[in-house]
Amino acid sequence: MEIKNYLSSQREKVEDALRRYIPEPAPPFAEHLASMKYSVFAGGKRIRPILCLAAAEAVLPDSDIQESLLPIACALECIHTYSLIHDDLPAMDNDELRRGKPTNHVLYGEAAAILAGDGLLTLAFELMTGNKATSLSPKQQLEITYIVARASGSFGMVGGQALDIAHEHQDYPFEMLRTIHRSKTGALITASVEAGAIGAGADSRARDALLTYGNCIGLAFQIVDDLLNATSTTEKLGKTAGSDEAKGKATYPAFFGIEGTRLKARQATSDALEALADFSSSADPLRALAEYIYTRSY
Ligand code: GRG
Fold it and tell me: Helix, strand, coil % (nearest 5) of the chain?
């Protein structure tokens, strides 16, 4: 399948829905909503929502499942965008460039950026539990909300970020790097796939396979991110290249070198593809997404 066309049509679908779901800036909250919208529409790849929709499509092809899952897919993008806004703050990574544009706090100020992140995180829960997601059963809504909350909080992304910051400029074993990567980045990616599986009513065998796929591409995603941070340019990435080394972060290249890291990313991608062995061509988008995550250049 042609991944470029697939990604751009899925991106359009997600962005149309995001435009519908994020309120238009209007008094009295105009400035706050504008700051939320600024980061959501600053040009992200939309990988997490696209993975959610592709996982659902793998389980229930030729149905309207993707339409039903758009509120969940958009919730995942809201959580991801909140994490980037907060990650860029002076108290965290202190970055001025994201997706090739000024970071949220540079444009709106620190307090407004914190609140833009808070607003997006909270909107995500409104989208997952509210009346926009009513094509799903209440049980599915509850289960998805739990999985996403768990992956985003102290045992997932937030916890991973806390560990990452606590270990800057320190030597630590590879096991700790794995824990940081799994929780900071991998957990939300895995939850995106799981949410699609739950929304499509996957049986336990399909769900286990998709969970393994999610874990493997979550790992591949972060390994490639480490690789790009070490080898690419700020211009290509749209965010500061070389920042990991400057901030004394342990990364895959620091443990395995550039070539060794490429091999690890390839292995994680192959493991992801193997997990899909029992799926028909309905999982081709997931297969193509795994290859895309491995070969992406930004
Ligand atoms: C502040 C609670 C909190 C968490 C921050 C995700 C994260 C935790 C920080 C981001 C730091 C970072 C660059 C992690 C590497 C992986 C990652 C999430 C990259 C950005 O994701 P993409 O490439 O971004 O999907 P786009 O811009 O395409 O949406």
Answer: 75, 0, 25
Helices 204-231 and 187-199 meet at what angle, rounded to 10? Answer: 150
* Whether residue 87 has its Cβ less than 6 Å from ligand 1: yes
d(CA 102, CA 123): 23
Model pLDDT for residues 256-272, shown as the tens digit of each residue: 999 999 999 999 999 99
225 C-beta closer than 6 A to ligand 1: yes
The finding on whether 88 has its CB within 6 A of some atom of ligand 1 is no
Give residues with Cβ within 8 angstroms of 61, minimum separation 6: 280, 282
What's the 184 CA to ligand 1 centre distance in angstroms?
A: 8
Q: Which three-class secondary structure string do you get for 216-248? A: HHHHHHHHHHHHHHHHCCHHHHCCCCCHHHHCC
Pick the residue whose CA is nearest to atom 17 on ligand 1: 185
Q: Is the preceding peptide bond at 23 cis, omega within 30 degrees of 0?
A: no
> What residue ranges do the domains of the chain occupy?
3-295
Q: For residue 70, name the pLDDT band (cuts at 50, 70, 90).
A: very high
Is the distance from CB of 36 to CB of 22 less than 8 angstroms? yes
> What's the CATH number for 3-295?
1.10.600.10
Query: N- to C-terminal Cα distance for the chain?
Result: 21
Q: What is the DSSP string of 63-88?
A: SSHHHHHHHHHHHHHHHHHHHHHHHT
Give the span between the Cα atoms of 208 and 202, in whole angstroms: 9
Overall pTM > 0.85: yes
CB of 39 shorter than 6 A to ligand 1: no
